[in-house]
Amino acid sequence: MISQVLSSEWLKVRSVRSTYYIGGVVATGVLLAIAVAAQAASLWDELLPESRRGDYNMTLVQALTVPVVQLCLALFGVLAITSEYAKGTIRGSFTAVPRRGAVLGGKAVVVAVVAALAGLVSVPAAFYAGGAIFAGLPVIPESTPPASEQIQLLLALSLSGALFALVGLGLGTVLRSTTGAVLVIVAQWYVLPMVAQWLPDPWNHRVASVLLSNLAPQIAGEELIGFGLSGVLTPVTAAMVAVGYIALVLGAAAIAVRRRDA
Amino acid sequence: MGLLSAEWLKVRSVRSTWYILGVAAACVLFAAVWAWYVGHLWDTAPAGQKVRQAAPGEHLAKTVVPFAMAVFGVLAVTSEYATGLIRTTLTTRPRRLRVLLAKVVVVAAGATVTGLVAMFGAFFVARRIMGDRPIEGYRSSASVEVPALVAASASVLVLALIGLGLGAAFRSTAAALAVVVGMVFVLPTVVRFMPTPWDDRLSSVLLPALPEAWASQPADAGVLSPQAAVAAMVAYVVVAVGLGAVALQRRDV
After folding, report:
1. CB distance from A165 to chain B under 8 Å?
2. pTM, whole model, 2 decimals?
3. Which chain B residues are within 8 Å of A183, Cβ to Cβ?
4. Axis crossing angle, helix B173-181 with helix A178-186, rounded to the nearest 10
5. Burial environment of residue B61 by CB neighbours within 10 A (0 to 12, 13 to 18, 19 or more)
6. How far away is chain A from the Cα of B230, in angstroms, using its nearest Cα?
7. pLDDT tens profile B17-33
8. Most exposed of A158, A177, B117, B239 (fewest Cβ within 10 Å)?
9. Percentage of chain B exceeding pLDDT 70
10. CA-to-CA distance for A85 and A198, rounded, in angstroms?
11. CB–CB of A191 and B64 under 8 A?
């Protein structure tokens, strides 16, 4: 039965247009970073020698591609369930598979796999394509950490899309509304980091350190973005917080689908 | 009149409207709690270690309320498509542009009132609670801040109508919301990476920059003049609602 649930969820994901639109926006996020890198490289010859520090590192990808990927995949996770509630097909799904937890589990597996693959393709693509554009330039070496040292960060950022997608799926299930789930995601991704900055020390970095969008760099052992602090959360703690988010939201979703009418 | 009262009834009778108004009210409440909290810190800290500056109480409202009302505008159209009621609406009222116009009037009225109440409410509540504690962010005279609050309220109206237009153009809540999030939250970061002078030029015409450009007196470099900012706001609304009107007129429902 498990394989049937999985294949039906995979069919649903494949057969809605929104999946492909979201894929298109993810690709745009990759192309943006590549275009900015190409443009910067084309200006190289005009730069003064002292400003020719080719620091093509993760910053550009982290600022341009990763937020687009995270938001897109969160929306992907949300729509995996709310589109069924909006169309009423959720009743058909639950009639065919009365074990509702299994339907949710099937969705979670499909969403996680698709989002992980999308992240693992798009984020490294932006990073390595941008790096290749800079490869021929006489880069001042000390400013650019070699790609091999950033592999952990690259992996964590690539997989952060799956974290967002699973949280989106759980929120969509609990709220049964595309709008509601998107609002919560936007609040968590944009509004809370802003409010966290206003809090007095040490609450500003304590709150910021557990926000969804700040987890991936900390899992890779990087500084907390916006504060320049390292070690607010250890990599293991940050990973546990990420798992905690998924467990909390999907747990609430599992309770919600069992208890409520469809 | 029948059309207007029908649209008004629709807006009043869906739960999402009340949730969105709840978000706006929460922003005012946040301003109060925030001002109380900062004031409390100021009162309890020993002399010499006092808070010198803090985010103004209305800051959260300026970010959140325009976006919340954009969602309101989107849902004013897309919720009808999602439930299929748009077919009933357009069967009883075959002149589709009039239906859209009625929605525009109702959404504009709702957004204007909500924007003004939220912005001025958050501002005055926070100022009242802060009293005369000398904290940067709360010291400018109210008359200096009024143009900024009016501009912020206008941006609430602008975002709501953009949401309405995009909702009619896309007929899908998710698509319209994605575009709004892109315009308000993602593009401002993206254009920062454009080559000079295009970074300043592009970011000056993006939605989040417009209210401040309107309210600021001297035109800085990379900021539109007040007249140009108003024109840009109007242009956004005209394009979005225009797209919605064309889509509504041309397509099947």
Report:
1. no
2. 0.88
3. 23, 68, 71
4. 20
5. buried
6. 26
7. 999 999 999 999 999 99
8. B239
9. 98
10. 38
11. yes
